[in-house]
């Protein structure tokens, strides 16, 4: 039985990874400090013998007894609202947290896969984004704390590979969505669906001509799974290249939810990338992977999930109180 440490398990992607690795018959050691995550996302796994949970901040020394085969490092605030509110924790988890896990991987001789992001390309001047593109990031802009933490994370990971021979994998994740996203995390899909369900107008930032390309969670998990089991140690984009403007996307949500909300326009946040679409040629060639779930199907499943939430959860517009995490 393979032993896998997964960090960020109470969050969106981490919780789906736990489901997948448990289903594959692995022993999953799950870790999270709950800064943006919620135990509800993994409580269905608590009774399983091959699942254990540690409430731990990975920026502090990480100690795991016994052997480890794989480490999947997914702990990090991931939405612009989160990393604007907890900028230092975001920098620390990408740098100190990653350092701890790379050290652990080295000692355990475990393979480590780290979650990087399309944000390493910043507001990209090359379109679609290939893995060879270096990016266009404003280090001191509002997104700098996330983007630079992730860029540092990639450098540190490659340094551990080169200098210590650690077996590494790097996934550059493009906008991924699905059940278990936090309704109030500010990302565009929960934001629009939450607004539609509450009968509010949909807030499009800027003129809505900026683009994104949305990947359904099941496709993302499959891509990550294949990358982990490949022998390729350089970054690989995993995302869905089906690109749409945010304005057209807002109109799709209005159709999907059958509501007659209006679109209202608000200022575009500083350094909000104007275009984003992954080149997935590498993933296709190396992993024989491409997304299978189109936006209509994925959004229907996501909408059904949010619709199943209680009235109380839907009204939860206030952002989480992070004060207990800030020292
Ligand atoms: P999320 O906020 O839902 O989950 C992140 C989890 O990490 C949370 O449960 C949080 O409590 C935990 N965490 C944060 N700091 C921690 C710390 N110091 N110690 C222990 N746990 C900590 O976010 P997500 O969307 O699931 O993103 C997961 C990973 O994927 C992140 O690394 C993110 O950068 C990356 N990613 C996600 C997307 C996306 O579209 N969802 C896109 C690009 C990259
Ligand atoms: N956005 C929007 N209205 C919202 C939330 C987001 O128009 O209520 C836009 C945001 O400006 C960005 C896109 O939707 O251009 C995707 O934003 P998100 O925060 O989901 O992720 P990003 O890709 O920017 O990290």
Protein model, in words:
The protein is an alpha/beta fold and 327 residues long. 37% of the residues lie in helices and 17% in strands. It contains ten helices and 13 strands. The protein has a seven-stranded parallel β-sheet, with helices on both faces. A two-stranded parallel ribbon has the order 7-10. Helix 4 links the parallel strand 5 and strand 6. The longest helix has 22 residues, at 87-108. The protein is globular and about 55 Å long. Nicotinamide-adenine-dinucleotide (NAD) binds next to helix 1, strand 2, helix 3 and strand 5.
Compounds present?
nicotinamide-adenine-dinucleotide, uridine-5'-diphosphate
* Residues in helix, %: 25-40%
Question: Major sheet, described briefly?
Answer: 7 strands, parallel
Principal-axis shape equals: globular
DSSP E strands, number: 13
Query: How many helices does DSSP assign?
Result: 10
Order of helices and strands: EHEEEHHEHEEHEEEHEEHEHHH
Regions with little confidence, pLDDT below 50 for 5+ residues: none
Helix/strand structural class: alpha/beta
Strand residues, percent: 15-25%
Order of strands across the main sheet: 3-2-1-4-5-6-11
Mean pLDDT: 95
Question: What's the N-to-C terminus distance?
Answer: 39 Å
Radius of gyration equals 19 Å
């Amino acid at each position: 039985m393979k032993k896998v440490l997964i960090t960020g398990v109470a969050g969106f992607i981490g919780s789906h990874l736990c489901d997948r690795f448990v289903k594959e018959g692995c022993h999953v050691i799950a870790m999270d400090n709950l800064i943006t995550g919620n135990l509800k996302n993994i409580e269905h796994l608590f009774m399983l013998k091959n699942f254990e949970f540690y409430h731990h901040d990975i920026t502090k020394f990480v100690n795991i007894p016994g052997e480890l085969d794989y480490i999947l490092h997914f702990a990090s605030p991931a939405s612009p609202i989160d990393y604007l509110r907890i900028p230092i924790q975001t920098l620390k988890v990408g740098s100190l947290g990653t350092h701890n896990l790379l050290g652990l991987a080295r000692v355990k001789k475990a393979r480590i896969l780290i979650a990087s992001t399309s944000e390493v390309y910043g507001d990209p001047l090359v379109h679609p984004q290939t893995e060879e593109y270096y990016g266009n990031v404003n280090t001191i802009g509002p997104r700098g704390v996330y983007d630079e933490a992730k860029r540092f994370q990639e450098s540190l990971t490659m340094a551990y590979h080169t200098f210590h021979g650690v077996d590494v994998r790097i996934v550059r994740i493009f906008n991924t969505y699905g059940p278990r996203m936090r309704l109030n995390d500010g990302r565009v899909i929960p934001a629009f669906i939450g607004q539609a369900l509450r009968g509010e107008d949909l807030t499009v930032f800027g003129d809505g001509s900026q683009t994104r390309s949305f990947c359904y969670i099941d496709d993302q998990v499959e891509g990550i799974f294949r990358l982990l089991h490949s022998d390729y140690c350089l970054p690989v984009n995993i995302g869905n290249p089906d690109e749409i403007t945010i304005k057209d996307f807002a109109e799709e949500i209005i159709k999907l939810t059958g509501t007659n909300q209006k679109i209202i326009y608000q200022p575009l946040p500083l350094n909000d990338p104007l275009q984003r679409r992954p080149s997935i040629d590498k993933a296709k060639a190396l992993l024989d992977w491409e997304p299978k779930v189109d936006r209509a199907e994925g959004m229907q499943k996501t909408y059904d999930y949010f619709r199943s939430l209680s009235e109380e959860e839907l009204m939860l517009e206030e952002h989480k109180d992070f004060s207990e995490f800030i020292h």
